[in-house]
Write a structure and sequence with these properties.
Number of strands: 0
Number of domains: 1
Helix content: 55-70%
Order of helices and strands: HHHHHHHHHHHHHHHHH
Oligomer: single chain
Shape: globular
Strand content: under 5%
Number of helices: 17
Structural class: mainly alpha
């Protein structure tokens, strides 16, 4: 007499409703996949064709609300609007490089679950879409910065998944080495543990919450144009990206809150690793920046890039004028940094609601203790000290870069 197969006791196999949600999210994402449209848009982009158009809502412009914005003319404001797009999506590229890699390592960690295929197929589609996103963002960013500066300012050469995710972080070489070691260890753990693999999507969902708010506004801008079909290509790319990312956020919630909730209670070690990952996310998001409202950049790390913008032909400032403007934008309270600080507070509230139902999350992470320590006063004090040091070094930065050939400038 043959032995009966044991009844599976895993998160997905026993939860028919969850399995249906995963299938529905994957199938709908596949039906509306914007990869072809993104590739077409990237292939057709020419900066000259849309350099006189607004790509985002006016408030989503570089240094919006600061004295620089207040005193800029309409052409300068247009460039700041376009540079917001370049800067914002350059940061998104960095996050999506890490996402592609972690989708694969975490899928391996989920192999231990019965009926793991639906989750893994969902992640495979997402990784393919992320590659299209990255190509579109880089195509636009490279052309814009070549035309305006002749070199990289906010964009960056492609790098691997163990590099700093934040483009402008509070870091140094030692911190970068330690972070790389931590990421390698974490990725090894995700590939062999279903709880830690699922918990990565809790972190991914947390990181996506603020981005979802920003990207929804960028998508709406495209939809509310008089003729969306003939919108500036970067605005269309923003919309296509948001449509894909809405399903990616659903994936994060399904795996990071529902699959993980259906797994056995985590061991002390698993809970520790999960909380360490959330603490790391808090540290990454414990800054705010008036340069790009909606990103958690360490503002002193942006000073060189902003200085390059001010000394470029867009503004044509001399050294003393540029430093004085940076002092007003970064070392004094203004509408721009107040708006960015408020965005951070909104993010904290949404993160708290997101984490509240998860039993393994410790009190400091649920209360967002690290992020809440950042105040307007601490932000201004840090900027003032850093600006004094930067001003002494800034005269060595070439005021107007020579125009480089694309291969040299963007290599």
């Amino acid at each position: 007499m043959s032995e009966k197969l044991p009844r599976p006791s895993t998160a997905i196999a026993e939860n028919v409703r969850l399995g249906k949600k995963i299938h529905l999210n994957h199938s709908r994402n596949k039906q509306q996949d914007h990869t072809a449209l993104l590739d077409q848009a990237a292939g057709a982009f020419r900066y000259e064709d849309c350099k006189d158009a607004w790509w985002n809502p006016r408030e989503m412009s570089l240094l919006h609300g600061t004295p620089l914005w207040d005193e800029a003319d309409e052409t300068q404001r247009l460039r700041l609007n376009q540079l917001y797009w370049v800067a914002y999506y350059s940061q998104i590229i960095s996050a999506e490089v890490a996402t592609i890699f972690l989708n694969q390592t975490c899928a391996a960690g989920l192999y231990a679950l019965e009926d793991f295929r639906g989750v893994c197929d969902m992640l495979d589609l997402e990784s393919s879409q992320e590659r299209a996103h990255i190509n579109a963002f880089k195509t636009v960013s490279d052309q814009v910065e070549e035309a305006l500066f002749g070199e990289r300012v906010f964009s960056w050469s492609m790098r691997g998944p163990y590099a700093q995710t934040m483009i402008f972080p509070d870091t140094n070489k030692l911190k970068d080495m330690w972070r790389g070691f931590q990421l390698r260890t974490y990725n090894l753990l995700t590939s062999g543990n279903a709880f830690i693999a699922s918990q990565y999507f809790t972190v991914r969902g947390l990181r996506t919450l603020n981005g979802k708010m920003v990207q929804h506004k960028l998508s709406q801008f495209h939809q509310t144009l008089e003729d969306p079909a003939n919108a500036p290509i970067p605005a269309a790319i923003s919309h296509y990206h948001f449509m894909d990312e809405s399903y990616h956020f659903n994936s994060s919630c399904l795996i990071g809150t529902e699959v993980i909730d259906a797994l056995p209670e985590p061991s002390a070690f698993e809970a520790m690793v999960g909380n360490m990952a959330l603490t790391g996310c808090q540290r990454d998001h414990s800054h705010f920046s008036a340069v790009v409202n909606g990103l958690f950049w360490h503002e002193p790390a942006t000073f060189r890039a902003v200085y390059r913008v001010l000394r470029s032909p867009i503004f044509g400032m001399e050294h003393r004028e540029a430093i004085a403007m940076m002092q007003r934008c970064f070392a004094e309270e203004n509408a721009g940094n107040r708006a960015s600080f408020q965005t951070m507070q909104t993010a904290i509230d949404s993160y708290q609601r997101y984490l509240e139902p998860l039993g393994y999350v410790n009190r400091d992470n649920k209360n967002l203790h690290i992020m809440r320590r950042t105040t307007m006063e601490s932000y201004l004090a840090k900027n003032r000290a850093s600006l004094a040091s930067f001003a002494r070094q800034a005269e060595q930065i070439v005021s107007v870069p020579r125009i480089l050939q694309p291969r040299e400038a963007l290599a």
